[in-house]
Amino acid sequence: MVDPAAPASAQSVATLSSPDGSIRVHLDLDDRGVPAYQVTADGEAVVDRSRLGVVLGDGDTLGVGMEVVETQTSEHDETWTQPWGQQATVRDHHRELRVRLRSASPPEREMILVFRAFNDGVGFRYEWPEQPELDRFRIMDERTEFRLADDPTTWWIRAYEHNRYEYIYNETKLSEAGYALHTPLTMAFPGEGPFVALHEANLTDYAAMSLRRTGPTRFQADLAPWSNGVRVYGEAPFRSPWRTILIGDEPGDLVTNMIALNLNEPNQIEDTSWIEPGKYVGIWWAMHLGMWTWGSGPNHGATTEHAKDYIDFAAEHGFDGVLVEGWNRGWDGNWVGEGADFSFTEPYPDFDLEEVAAYAREKGTRLIGHHETSGHVPNYEAQMEEAYDLLERLDVNALKTGYVDHGMDFPRETGGDSLAREWNYGQYMVRHYRRSIELAAEHGIMLDIHEPVKGTGLRRTYPNLMTQEGARGQEFNAPWGGGNGPDHIPTLVFTRLLAGPMDFTPGIFNLDAEGEEANSVPTTLAGQLALYVVLFSPLHMAADLPKNYEAHPDAFQFIKDVPTSWAETTVIDAAIGDHVTIARKDRTSDDWYLGAKTDGSARTVRVALDFLADDTSYTAEIYRDGAEAGWTSNPMDYEVETQSVEANDTLQLRLAPGGGAAVRFRQ
Question: What is the pTM of this model?
Answer without folding.
Answer: 0.97
